[in-house]
Amino acid sequence: MSLVINGKAVSAPADARVSLLDLLREGLDLPGTKKGCNQGACGACTVLVDGERILSCLALAVQYDGRSITTIEGIGGDAGLHPLQAAFIEHDGFQCGYCTPGQICSAIGMANEAKRGVPSNVTVDLTGDPTMTREELQERMSGNLCRCGAHNGIIDAIRDGLATELAA
Fold first, then answer.
1. Nearest-angstrom CA–CA distance, 74 and 104
2. Domains of the chain and any CATH numbers
């Protein structure tokens, strides 16, 4: 059994009870994914699995055998920062930075959902592509909490950093 984390094959933990979050942080020394509430309420542990956002504190690592997992360390690359990472810096979308990795992973997953036409609770037109208004973005990101109060900067960063993806 193995997982693919940030493009590299990794053996699944011997203990089937290990959460994906603990495997990432403690087993693989990938500290970018944060342990916030450890009960799925804050979004600090959000990672992408095959492009979809999940809460890694609620997931057992063995559930993702053969799947592709992307953490904040796997976003961007040799060419530099992902446009969303650069937008977070430009718009001061973080203060302490603790929630930022989860916010970025969640926003990328959210953009993928929007491209597939997945509606939110505030989507007006359920028959077409959702219009990404400020209210729509806030609703879609409501599962990611920021205790510092950088919400306006976060939404502005998402609008700018994912403008191409959200417009498609």
1. 11
2. 2-74 (3.10.20.30), 83-167 (1.10.150.120)
